[in-house]
Amino acid sequence: MDKKITLISGASRGIGRAIATRLAREQHFVMLLARNAEELSELEFEIDQAGGKSLSFPIDIASEKQVNETVDQILRDFGRIDSVINNAGIGIFKPADELAASDWDRVMEVNVKGSFLLSKAALPAMKKAGAGHIVGVASDVSKRTFATGSLYTASKYAQHAFFESLRREVRKLGIKVSVIYPGLVDTYFHDGPPGQAHRKGYLQPTDIADAVAYVLNAPPHVVVDELMLHPMIQEW
Ligand code: NJP
């Protein structure tokens, strides 16, 4: 097996789907993780038609059991994990006093605990190999905040802190940790489907896929710690 074994969470649509499509063209055997089994198998079919390799795992990234079973199965079948792209994420935007405690739990579970669970499950194999690359898709709002963003930005600050700390733990073991911080991207993350006129000029999911490919393709002696991207139309 000369292909790299790469796990991508949130692969069913948006940014994760674009990352999977791009990496499958670049000698990665992509493992597609998300809940929507139908969208995953459509993507698997598309990748296959384009000559690439992928497998679908319809799981909830916030479930420790499902994440561990998935990683165990991949390790049993392929014997290694080269890269993990922690991309799955959700947002709920409301004034703080209108947020339900269950909103808080869910966003934190998917955005923060999901990144922790998937990275944790992959780390023992990477440590044993003395190599590996963990990538986080965080947000420009990992570093600034805004009204109605208390929950989402808290989750993205936390995700940023998790990867910052992890980077300091594993670099000396040969494992790279890179975080991408996108601004506005035209995906299902916003209300309604992509392609609407008022989102003209937003980043495209393929722009983030290009950034992930750049980060993964850095030579062995180089690690891209952080990469922030904005559309030109966005104030920063
Ligand atoms: O969003 P969307 P994006 N378990 O809604 C999956 C960040 N970001 O591509 O489970 C497993 O099109 C969901 O799959 P499914 C953002 O915070 C975005 O824009 O089948 N997977 C789908 O594949 C997020 O971290 C913007 O519903 C779960 C994917 O996540 C990342 O980019 C700006 C899941 C979401 O696709 C990708 O978001 C920014 C679960 N429990 C950061 N819950 C932006 N779009 O403007 C969701 O700064 N997913």
What descriptive keywords fit this protein?
236 residues, alpha/beta, Rossmann fold, 7-stranded parallel sheet, 6 helices, 7 strands, 17% strand, globular, binds 5-hydroxy-NICOTINAMIDE-ADENINE-DINUCLEOTIDE PHOSPHATE
How does this model look, in words?
This protein is α/β, with parallel strands linked by helices and 236 residues long. The longest helix has 29 residues. It has 6 helices and 7 strands. α1 packs across α6, α3 packs parallel to α4 and α4 runs parallel beside α5. Helix content is 43%, strand content 17%. The site of 5-hydroxy-NICOTINAMIDE-ADENINE-DINUCLEOTIDE PHOSPHATE (NJP) has 31 residues, from α1.
Any chance you could write out the topology, listing elements then pairs?
Elements: E1 4-9, H1 14-24, E2 28-34, H2 37-49, E3 53-58, H3 64-78, E4 83-86, H4 101-129, E5 132-137, H5 150-170, E6 175-182, H6 205-216, E7 226-229
Parallel strand pairs: 1-2, 1-4, 2-3, 4-5, 5-6, 6-7
Helix pairs in contact: 1-6, 3-4, 4-5
